[in-house]
Amino acid sequence: MTATTISPGGRLPIPVAAAQTAELARRSIVGTARQPAMWFPAIVFPLLIAAVNAAAFNRAPQALASLGFPPVVSFLQFLLPGTLTQGVMFGGIIGGSDVALDIENGFFERLLASPVARTSILVGRLAGSAVLGACQALIFVGVFVVFGAPIEGGLAAVVVLVVTAMLLALAVGGFAAAIGLRSGSQEAVQNAFPLLFVLVFVSSAFFPTALMKGWYQSVAERNPITWMIDGMRALVVYGFDWTDALSAVAVAAGLAVVAALMASRQFRRRLRSA
Which DSSP string corresponds to 25-38? Predict the structure, then answer.
């Protein structure tokens, strides 16, 4: 067995910390894959909602264009960004819930007692959420393409959708991890989920903001989720454009940074009280 070398400042060498992060990320990914009851609804429910909406609106795409919807070959093109966002936000909560589970069953305390880099504990969990987000994005794109929704932006647009999904999963996972670290309770994390979901419904996920009225339209137009969805939607409906791509990725990245700061703050608080 090789002893772990710790620097005089108490920090682990970067290669060792990276290896620990990769191992904890692998544990998170494998643990999630072994719990289909956790991730299966995050794929099936958004697809069912999309199927219902498409069945209702897909028969008159020209009429929809006259009402203010973008000109689409299939209504599924319009729905894809909203469905992806909905599913990733649904699945991203798993990472935070697992952090709370680690605290409840004592695994978090055992990690703190071992020579594991502290940042690896949190980053490993969030990396699992990011991988799940990428898998969801690829599944949604594949299913929608099979059912007649072409991605006009081509492979470059698909890459942007996957990267955006990963960053959004990090954002949701970081927010959920902050709640899990603060409360140490899985129930608290799960109860916060509806608050996140409201952001999807008060956005352009299912209707263009131009068709909304009053306070609902004002909130939707100022909702960062709307900016992100509109960027992805332009890539799917009109073709690849760097401005739209950067809009989608930048919003998701900004949310991820804010959530990571919140999670890091609660993580340090948890360390001080341990």
Answer: HHHHHHHHHT-HHH
> From CA 239, how far away is CA 161, in angstroms rounded?
13
Q: Quote the DSSP letter at residue 10.
A: S
Alpha helices, DSSP H, located in 106-238: 107-113, 118-146, 154-183, 186-201, 214-221, 224-237
Q: Which pLDDT value is given to residue 194?
A: 79
Question: Collapsing DSSP states into helix, strand and coil, what is residue 80?
Answer: helix
Spatial CA neighbour of 87 closest among 43, 143, 24, 142: 43
Q: Fill in the DSSP letter of residue 147.
A: T
Distance between CA atoms of residues 31 and 29, nearest Å: 5
Q: Among 245, 111, 235, 81, which Cα is nearest to 181's?
A: 111
> What element of type H or E holds 18?
helix 14-33
Query: 42 — alpha (psi -120 to 50), left (phi > 0) or beta?
Result: alpha
Q: pLDDT digit string (tens) for 26-48?
A: 888 887 788 787 788 888 989 99
pLDDT averaged over every residue in the chain:
85
**For residues 12 and 117, is the Cβ–Cβ distance under 8 A?**
yes
The pTM for the full model equals: 0.86
